[in-house]
Sequence to fold (403 residues):
Amino acid sequence: MLPTDPGRPDLSGLRIRRETEDTTAGNPTGTRKFRRIFVFVGLLLILVVCYVLFRGMFTSATEVDVTTASLTYPSQESAVLTASGYVVAQRKAAVASKGTGRLEYLGVEEGDRVKKGEMIARLEDQDMLAALAQAKAGLEVSRADLLDAERSLARTKTLFSSNLAAQADLDAAQATYDRVRATIVSSEAGVRAAEVAVENTRIRAPFDGTVLTKDADVGEVVAPFASSINSRGAVVTMADMSSLQVEADVSESNFTRVRAGQPCEIVLDAYPNIHYPGRVHKIVPTADRAKATVMTKVVFDKLDSRVLPEMSAKVTFLSGDSAVANAGAPPLLTVMSSAIVERTGKPVVFVVRDGKVTETPVRTGRVIGNRTEILEGISQGDQLVLDPAPGIVTGTIVKPRSK
Fold:
């Protein structure tokens, strides 16, 4: 043992008593145990929450084919051919004037409806009206001459019967009377010609229809054949909207499947959800050599204001006993028939929502090709499992099969 330095204090007797520290510090050992329990419970709760939120990641999903519930038109059941074409007015006219002059009045715009004989426009007519007035004045002069000639002839006949006038005088009076009558006929014809000339300055509708385009404006010169580059040939273009038809091109290879009177269904590209019933009106007896097609004219059974000339359209030619009833019939909610299975003796489908399937009972209707009408149970746009396996039940996790 080393000798003790009398100048240094002896520290060998100093010891740390941990019992004393634990007692004086308010029992920190118990606090540490409580913290360990708290941390353990917290970690356990976190693990539970993670399992609930992410358990789908650790569960294998069943790959399935899916289909969508959509609207189907009954006409698809009896469709035999589809062709494209355009809406064309069969009665259409570029309305022009028979005379030449400056346009003074235009009373219509695009879209206006006019009746047959209604005045659409008017050319300057002051010279024509003056000529008409002159012709009428000449007619009045001739009628006045006729009255004088009638009286002169009557007097000459009286004198001739009394042997107071010669035969030459009677012949001269008769000739004057006949000449005046001929002058009246000529004057009446001149009046009619002047009236026609005035009427030629009035441009009238040739039939009941709708104005499609306005081809001239007030102040422009209108000529029958637009002989000058500064003149207009037509004032307006109009069409009879009740004569609208679809002119569709049918390929020569399918020409034999079309016949006159065949029921059709017309769909305008502007209104794809509206189906118009129609029928084949005429098959033009010539083919287009360049396109190898035959033009077929299809008439509408029902027309409305939405159908306009030059609209593009698709025509579905129908066949079968139910074709007439199917044409224009409203759409039906349908699904692929293979999506419907029987469970416990009832038809059901499996609707896919958020990656899981739900068994849903349905009430079915008619069969249209490979699709079946659904009367109740699901809505348009629902995703359904195709050919569901027996092991698929409500709650099964699925994912669409990649194609």
